[in-house]
Amino acid sequence: MTLLEPEYGRRSLGDVVPAVARALGRPLDPGTAPDRGVAGAPGLVLPDAEAYVLFLVDGLGARQLARYEHAAPYLSSLRVVDAAATAGVPSTTATSLTSLGTGLTPGTHGVVGYSSRIPGTDRLLFALGWDAAVDPREWQPHPTTFTRLQTAGVTTTVVNKREFEGSGLTEAAHRGADFVGADKVGERIAATQRVSARTPSLTYLYDGDLDWTGHRHGVASTAWLQQLAMIDSEAEQLRESLPASVRLLVVADHGMVDADPAQRFDVDALPELSAGVSLLGGEARFRQLYCQRGAVDDVVAAWRGTLGDAAEVLTREEAVARGWFGPVSSTVVPRLGDVLVACRDRASVVSTVGWSHESRLVGLHGSLTPDEMLIPVLID
């Protein structure tokens, strides 16, 4: 399966909030953002409005929505903004939410995966759970788009589960916005209706249940299709609760593929994959390998020889040159693996000893296939 390059600066997840800012009549000043990695080129054009609600459905790829539109008639009826956009690399939640919240590419904002090495240590930062020893404001030091919009006079609000308030990822990706804790669908809709009445405003609403279901049961499973139908109903109810003057924008952070057990590579059962690797990071569809000194070439040869056409195996320098992460700042370089492994088709790379939970997942994401990279941008 062909790998899909990210559309940074044109139609990527990081371009969404800058496009909303322009539609609100409060374009973000490029001079207030870092010189490198700034998204927001006019690739996404949204209709003008006094208020926007941005609803992110975790795990709803554009291709999945197209295949199973019968389970989501309301979402399927919405107008597609231009062509399908792309997630960044890797196509995983922590990276995507930070791209959305900062308007920056992964190589600039620095949240470069589900797990990545903490430079100068032999430890990984698991970005969804974070690490108490890592300051999220130092790890991701750039002002978020929410902060910049607040400065421009736009009320910005995050509506999310209470457990995420003040979390490391929330601080890295969404600081600067007011936080409203809401665990249930009814709470979320009511809170969104209330705060979006302010003008100008941007209200960000997150739902992670479809991703959770896909991981455990697989895309197109009965459970996943039922969950998609529930998300569709939630989106429709949300729209009905909002006045016509408020625009509803629906996006996703990535898509998903179902892993094929016949294409699963277990590093604990294949000793040639462990040779020269001091730390295994990333996730099953996008591994980041931190190598022993002088071992990079040997690691690349071993992984290419073992995985063959099941994955693209690149050195960090090769991946950066391809633009996978956008411009990469000097502080972010050591967080990236010395070797990157992007799986094709339905392949996965697991560690049944060190990462046993991944071996039990059905749906996976993180790589650059169209099923994982293409995301919908829908407007009502």
TrEMBL record:
The keyword Lyase does not apply. This is Phosphopentomutase. It comes from Nocardioides aquaticus. It holds the Pfam family Phosphodiest. It comes from the Bacteria. It is an enzyme of class 5 (isomerase). Coiled coil: none annotated. GO terms for molecular function: phosphopentomutase activity. The keyword Methyltransferase does not apply. InterPro entries: Alkaline_phosphatase_core_sf (IPR017850), Phosphodiest/P_Trfase (IPR002591). Gene3D superfamilies: Alkaline Phosphatase, subunit A. Its EC number is 5.4.2.7. Keywords: Isomerase.
